[in-house]
Amino acid sequence: MTDTPTQLFIGGAWVDAADGATMAVDDPATGEILCQVADAGPKDAKLAEEAAVQAQQDWARTAPRVRSEILRRAYEIIVERTDELARLMTSEMGKPLAEARGEVAYAAEFFRWFSEEAVRIDGGCATLPDGRNRMLLSRRPVGPCLLITPWNFPLAMGTRKIGPALAAGCTMVLKPAPQTPLSSLALAAILKEAGLPDGVLNVVTTSRAGEVCEPLLRGGRIRKLSFTGSTAVGQLLLAQSAQAVVRTSMELGGNAPFVVFEDADLDKAVDGAMVAKMRNMGEACTAANRFFVHRSVAEEFGRRLAGRMGALVVGPGARDGVDVGPLIDRRGRAKVEELVADAVERGAQVLVGGRTPEGPGNFYPPTVLADVDPGSRLMDTEIFGPVAAILTFDDEDEVIRRANDTPWGLVGYVFTEGLDRALRVSERLEVGMVGLNTGLVSNPAAPFGGVKQSGLGREGGRVGIDEFLEYQYLAVPVR
Ligand code: NAD
């Protein structure tokens, strides 16, 4: 987008970083610099925090219907500008245009959903058991929030947090990932156009995340942190949040098991695998990381999956007909290469892919590995790339034990035609979400989130707004 803002958004104004610093945004398909954006430092973050704090009381008192209508209007603008936003996202993040359009629709839907939730925040009134006291229960916005988002879904990870925060009556400072600041800046411009009052949303783009965020978390004025990103950074931020007892929501990494039983419909399983593995080039927290396939169908499953993966077209996301774009950066690609090399050294067979192409851009081919040794590093590391690692199993108890043998618990996928088994296995998986004969779980109307080291809290669904609300109980004697 030619008119995409590149400055910080503070108190409703577009401003440069106080020290004039800028940072480059790269195109992962070419390695070339797309543009420079403002690179905020701690001073800018403090100004953004101040703007959010100043706007908090008025925004909390703004009628829920007004908050709802701003979100609804922003939803409509996003949908109207789908193509423009998709192109912007592809340019900074790399995903194919069709996927970027899909993400725009998904992102917009969080605003529509939470525009509907803004007017349904409930409370309660009851006579307490002693008969002498009443309880009036109301729900209040938690206060100014810090929202930190990753690069892999640059628009949707923003709207999934901004939507419920606005609906609940919270103000906020958004810090997007340095690789993909443009989608967040475009989103801020859309919310301004939709009528969002100054200071309610502030956006600080920065390459100095730690310096910018830590003082806000320790300072006591930010009351809520909502973070999506890696478990390692999440753990650090939880520790920083402890000092001022900041409420936290954490959407962290995953290590999803994808289990194919001997009674699975293999057509469904391969279709599901393509989505669970290849959505976003494998750069998704929900990406299937470990394929456990029953020994009796493993060869057939591997052959079919390799056929489908090998037929995908790899190239720049903006080019027609491309299915698989580049990975986000050189570091991301190097990690995938190392994980594949380690698995192959331990005896994995490469059914397709596995070779980094020559030339510019961070491309890596769709890859299927069979007979993967359980001791391989990719078993306990998020691959974050287009690599499917297949292991075999013999019985149900064994596969459940192996699937659960990880510190993460975001999502699992189960493929079986048996109803009893489907329910039994799903209930025994230690995960926040299960895809049953499907490779896609994300939906704005459903609670998204994990257990164990995959996070705390849920985003989306009826419960998504709870993360931004506190209860207040009023004791009123019966007289
Ligand atoms: P990351 O943890 O490196 O970065 C995430 C965000 O945190 C970025 O905005 C980054 O700038 C910021 N950050 C980094 N260090 C920080 C610090 N010291 N203080 C404050 N902020 C800091 O993760 P990433 O590489 O951008 O994203 C990939 C990760 O995100 C994967 O682990 C993936 O599983 C996870 N993810 C999870 C979900 C989910 O909903 N569970 C969704 C998408 C991505």
Protein architecture, described:
The protein is of the alpha/beta class and 479 residues long. The chain folds into two domains: 267 residues, 3-Layer(aba) Sandwich (Aldehyde Dehydrogenase, Chain A, domain 1); 188 residues, Aldehyde Dehydrogenase, Chain A, domain 2. It is 38% helix and 21% strand. The longest helix is centred in the N-terminal third of the chain and has 21 residues. It starts with 7 loop residues before the first strand and ends with a strand. The model has no long low-confidence stretch (mean pLDDT 98). It binds nicotinamide-adenine-dinucleotide (NAD). The site of nicotinamide-adenine-dinucleotide has 27 residues, from α7 and α8.
Which features does this protein show?
479 residues; alpha/beta; Aldehyde Dehydrogenase, Chain A, domain 1; 2 domains; six-stranded mixed β-sheet; binds nicotinamide-adenine-dinucleotide
SSE topology sketch:
Elements: E1 8-10, E2 13-15, E3 22-26, E4 33-38, H1 42-61, H2 64-80, H3 82-93, H4 97-117, E5 124-127, E6 133-141, E7 145-148, H5 156-168, E8 172-175, H6 181-193, E9 201-203, H7 209-219, E10 224-228, H8 231-243, E11 247-251, E12 256-260, H9 266-278, E13 288-294, H10 298-310, H11 330-345, E14 349-352, E15 367-370, E16 387-393, H12 396-404, E17 408-409, E18 411-415, H13 419-428, E19 433-436, E20 451-452, E21 455-456, E22 469-477
Parallel strand pairs: 7-8, 7-10, 8-9, 10-11, 12-13, 12-18, 13-16, 15-16, 18-19
Antiparallel strand pairs: 1-2, 3-4, 5-6, 6-22, 11-21, 14-15, 17-20
Helix pairs in contact: 1-7, 2-4, 2-5, 2-6, 3-4, 3-6, 4-5, 9-10
